[in-house]
C-alpha cells in the first residue's frame, strides 16, 4: 500500500480527495498547512504529496521548497489559481505536476497513479542491465544514475524519465504530447507548460551551455530530441 499526503486548508477538499484515493487502496495522511505537511513527511514514509498553494502558516510554494531540499517524492500542486505563472512557479521549484481547482477526480487519480508508478520504478532495486551512452552522457538505469563528463547529475524522477525516454530514442523528435503520453503513460492533460519546464530543468543540469545545448534540443514547432553524438545502448558486463 502506498502512502499519499493530502495538504489543503479546506478540510472538505481533503476529505473528498481522501474518499477517491481510498477507493484506489492508498493510505491517506492529511495536513491543513505547510508546517503540518512537513511534520507528516518527517514522521511517515510518504510516497506522494498533493499540495495546495494557498495555505496559512507556510504556503505550498514554501513547503515544496522545503521538501525538495532532501526529498525526491512526487508532488502534485493543487491550486485554485489558473494562471500559467502560478503553475510554472510550482514546477520551477520542483513539482512534478499540477491540477487546477475545481478538478476532475478521475484526472487527479490518473495523475496520482502515473506518478506513483514512475516513482516506484525510479527507486526500484530490480536489476536493469542496460547503460544508455551518448557521447559523455551516460544513463545507468540499474542505479537510476545520470553522468555527464563523469559527474553525477541529480534529477527528479520526472526529469529522469523524460531524459531516459528521449535518450533511448536519440535522434528522433517527439512532440510534447508524445513525451507526456510515453512518460506519464496516460492521456495528455495540458502538457505544454509541464514538459517545457521539465525540459528546461534537464538542460540546465546536463548541458555545459543550456542556451547552446549539445544533447537536448528543441525542433521549433515540432518537439524535442536527444541529439545523437555517439554511443549505443550496451549491456552491463
Sequence-ordered SSE layout with sheet pairings:
Blueprint: E1 3-7, H1 11-23, E2 27-31, H2 34-43, E3 48-52, H3 60-67, E4 75-79, H4 84-93, E5 97-100, H5 105-122, E6 130-134, E7 137-140, E8 145-148, E9 151-153, H6 157-168, H7 176-184, H8 192-206, E10 216-219, E11 223-226, E12 233-235
Parallel strand pairs: 1-2, 1-3, 3-4, 4-5
Antiparallel strand pairs: 6-7, 6-12, 7-8, 8-9, 10-11
Helix pairs in contact: 2-3, 4-8, 5-6, 6-8
Q: What this model shows, in words?
A:
The structure is a single chain. The longest helix has 18 residues, at 105-122. The chain is α/β, with parallel strands linked by helices and 237 residues long. The protein has helices at residues 11-23, 34-43, 60-67, 84-93, 105-122, 157-168, 176-184, 192-206, and strands at 3-7, 27-31, 48-52, 75-79, 97-100, 130-134, 137-140, 145-148, 151-153, 216-219, 223-226, 233-235. 40% of the residues lie in helices and 22% in strands. The radius of gyration is 18 Å and the shape is elongated. The strands form three sheets. It has a five-stranded parallel β-sheet with strand order 2-1-3-4-5, sandwiched between helices. Helix 2 (34-43) packs parallel to helix 3 (60-67) and helix 4 packs parallel to helix 8 (192-206). It has two domains: 3-122, Response regulator (Rossmann fold, 3-Layer(aba) Sandwich), CATH 3.40.50; 130-235, Arc Repressor Mutant, subunit A, CATH 1.10.10.10. Mean pLDDT is 86; it is low at 124-129 and 233-237.
